[in-house]
Amino acid sequence: MEKKVSIKDIAKKLGVSAALVSYVLNNKEKEARVGLEMAERIRHTARELNYQPNLIARSLRSGRTKTIGLIVADISNPFFSNIARTIEDEASLNNYTVIFGSSDENAEKSQTLINTLIKRQVDGLIIAPAENTSPQLQVLSDRGFPYVLIDRYFNDLTANTVRINNYQASFKAVTHLYERGYRRIAMVAYKTKLPHMEDRKRGFLGALQKFGLPVMENGLMESSYENISSDVAGIMQTLLDNTENRPDSFLFATNSLAINGLKEINKRKLVVPKDLGIISFDETEAFDFFYCPLTYINQSTDRIGKEAVRILMQQLESKDKNKTEKMDTAQLVIDAQLVVQRSCGE
Amino acid sequence: MEKKVSIKDIAKKLGVSAALVSYVLNNKEKEARVGLEMAERIRHTARELNYQPNLIARSLRSGRTKTIGLIVADISNPFFSNIARTIEDEASLNNYTVIFGSSDENAEKSQTLINTLIKRQVDGLIIAPAENTSPQLQVLSDRGFPYVLIDRYFNDLTANTVRINNYQASFKAVTHLYERGYRRIAMVAYKTKLPHMEDRKRGFLGALQKFGLPVMENGLMESSYENISSDVAGIMQTLLDNTENRPDSFLFATNSLAINGLKEINKRKLVVPKDLGIISFDETEAFDFFYCPLTYINQSTDRIGKEAVRILMQQLESKDKNKTEKMDTAQLVIDAQLVVQRSCGE
DNA sequence: CTGAAAGCGCTTACAG
DNA sequence: CTGAAAGCGCTTACAG
Questions:
Q1: A294/A307 same-domain check
Q2: Where are the alpha helices (DSSP H) in chain A?
Q3: Which of A303, A255, A247 has the alpha carbon at shortest distance from A279?
Q4: In a domain, B212, yes or no
Q5: DSSP string, B70-134
Q6: DSSP bridge partners of A249
Q7: Residue ranges of the alpha helices (H) in A49-165?
Q8: What is the distance in angstroms between the Cα of A130 and the nearest Cα belonging to chain B?
């Protein structure tokens, strides 16, 4: 491999100091009052040698890497890969790049990722936190390390957060089902103590109560994250094969739950929306693709990604300028929209 | 923000030199023959101060960042986010992290991304190259910069590549349609000169010829990448609304093309597989989700990701050991499997 | 207008 | 057994 050309090579070739080259290449020739002609010659030689600055060296010197670390549950989940794409674009507009990692909803992996990214000197983190990671994040907060949570949050942690109004979203979904005449509404959620998921469950229960609907037996079921496929299969078996007490509709708390659930519904030749009304959280192209396009709760991954980067950039700026005062934490709650398609009747 | 603790802080606290600390923390105490007791004290203090090595500094010194740059067309496309996930895991096993970028099939963006990643000193690149980027890649090759192409390749470029046998895959798909009795087979592909896409088209044409089937009027249509939605809508209109000359089956060259195409098919209430047989390239959860699960060509993103990392790691190792000889380029062609579901009849 | 020097945090060949 | 020193490539306050 060709040796990379450094500032020194340019300096040597022109018989000037490295400092001069650096000033010119950073457009600080005025500050250093470099001669115009010399500036031109430096620029010309840089181009000629195809000089690419070593950003690692610059980072070591500046203490800034212009890099964001992104930690999600799983980058291959469309919800997260859509957010990742938006974050990439927004970061790029600010001259930042993104390093990513998947935690698999696992607190240990999360800690390992955080450590790795910090050792790599990322300037800040955007995290969709896994269960039981609140202590890890508290440590970041205590150290004043900039980060923004997305999608999830913790009650015992004050942190920058961008998320939807989960309670309201569930409530809206149940209201919609109720208005379309469904009365035996079941919910399939994740078994987790993460508050965003609890909120979705509470919104479901709150709406049932408002409409005077009893919670059905097995009306609120929970799947693990690790064995989602078999867990949901079992849940759907319990609910669907008990014909005399079958739900007439389902609220799924995530896209993965819905996809697994609908596979079971299809297997049993149950027809949406005639036999079952369906609403799910999270957009995914699969939903439009169903024979009866699903009504879903749109989290607006675009908005989440944009706002997360915006808030992180603010934090980084304020840190650069103002080393004493700490910025207020930003808690942004986005209003999730119910996108009505055809899975709850016309 | 708390000041980060460095090797010097540990050294100072114990009244030893930074060198000593470095040796111990890198488990090179034997080489430096450090006292056992001192080694213990150093380790203890490091833990106590929660020392995290600055990998940027190490990289500057070593000339290695242990970072892979990943360039795909769009990280939010499930085909690429699945590959990204595999690459993340494989990289992690080798103590590498991944920086990613999306080229949007645009040669300029691709060049910008390559430059950015190289300035950030990634050790190597894994690239799903966009059209017209062969010259950019040739420059990398000329400089001896390690990279591996995935999914796509170029005829005028000798480079490490991991891809499927596109011609064969298309051929197999058409054969399957033929065997199921379809005779009026149309293909929807991308308008691009990228050879992997040309191969898919050639495989289609080759199989038609083998079975003595004429190429239908408008039997091989091409969509742009930028306006896929409106382009495919137009294509499907041309093909489907010409009722007396309608195809009886479709081969879609990618998941995105299939998804857009099937939306149009659904709109017209055409039923798969009765009215139309369907096969698509690329797995995506949406396919299983269709009322009639799609028969598709599985590219095995898992395999592609793993092999790409393996080959890149080999290149990096050989580069470290052996500065003179260049390694042979690896050209891995994976046999794509036709996954038969129900979209071509039983 | 220009250069010499220090320093970011680390590693490692060298000298004792 | 241990330390001093150089150097990775860059930036910038300082001195002329």
A1: no
A2: 7-14, 18-25, 36-48, 55-62, 78-93, 107-119, 134-143, 166-179, 195-210, 228-240, 255-267, 285-289, 301-321
A3: A255
A4: yes
A5: EEES-TTSHHHHHHHHHHHHHHHHTT-EEEEEE-TT-HHHHHHHHHHHHHTT-SEEEE-PPTT-H
A6: A185, A277
A7: 55-62, 78-93, 107-119, 134-143
A8: 17
**Enclosing domain of residue A17:** 7-53
Tokens encoding B279: 């096969």
Give the A:B interface size as CB pairs under 8 Å. 139
pLDDT digits (tens, 9 = 90+) for A139-154: 999 999 999 999 999 9
Is it the case that residue A324 has pLDDT exceeding 60? no
Whole-number average pLDDT of chain A: 94
Round to whole Å and give the CA distance between A42 and A24. Answer: 7
Listed by number, the residues of chain A in 225-264 with a beta carbon closer than 8 Å to a beta carbon of chain B are 259, 262-263
Does A2 reside within a domain? Answer: no
Instruction: Write out pLDDT tens, residues B153-181.
Output: 999 999 999 999 999 999 999 999 999 99
Question: For residues B288 and A256, which has the higher predicted lDDT (pLDDT)?
Answer: A256
Buried b (16+ CB within 10 A) or exposed e, A124-142: bbbbbbbbbbbebbeebbe
The 3-state DSSP class for residue A260 equals helix
Instruction: Please give the Cα distance from A8 to A46 (Å, whole number).
Output: 11
How far is A75 from A81, CA to CA, in rounded Å?
5
Question: Omega into A273 within 30° of 0, i.e. cis?
Answer: yes
Q: What is the pLDDT of residue A325?
A: 61
Assess whether pLDDT exceeds 70 at residue A1.
Answer: no
Does residue B182 sit in the same domain as residue B235? yes
Do A96 and A68 contact (CB within 8 A), yes or no?
A: yes
Any domain includes A103: yes
Please answer whether residues A309 and A94 qualify as being in contact, where contact means their C-beta atoms are separated by less than 8 angstroms: yes
| CB-strand contact B15/D, under 7 Å | yes
* Structure token digits, residue B21: 């600390």
Q: Are both A216 and A315 inside the same structural domain?
A: no
pTM of the model: 0.95
The helix-helix angle for A107-119 and A134-143 (nearest 10°) equals 20
Residues 94..113 of B with a Cβ closer than 8 Å to A: which?
97-102
Q: Is residue A235 part of a domain?
A: yes
**B337-339 sheet: strands from edge to edge:** B220-223, B185-190, B249-252, B277-281, B295-298, B337-339
CA of B71, C1' of D9: distance in angstroms? 26
In angstroms, the CA A10 to CA A44 distance is: 10
Digit-coded pLDDT (tens) for B32-86: 777 888 888 999 999 999 999 999 999 999 999 999 999 999 999 999 999 999 9
B99 and B155 assigned to the same domain? yes
CATH number for B36: 1.10.260
Q: Are A255 and A281 in contact (CB under 8 A)?
A: yes
Q: Is A68 on the interface with B (CB under 8 A)?
A: no
Residue found under tokens 């690149």 = B125
Instruction: Say if residue A115 is in the same domain as residue A199.
Output: no
Residue A70 structure tokens: 């992104």
DSSP 3-state assignment of B147? strand
My answer on whether A150 and A176 are in the same domain is no
**A114 and A42: one domain?**
no
Nucleotide lying nearest to A17, CA to C1' measure: C3
pLDDT band at residue A102 using 50, 70 and 90 as cut-offs: very high
Alpha helices in A94-162 (DSSP H): 107-119, 134-143
Number of domains chain B is built from: 3
Q: Verify if strand D has an atom below 7 Å from the CB of A19.
A: yes
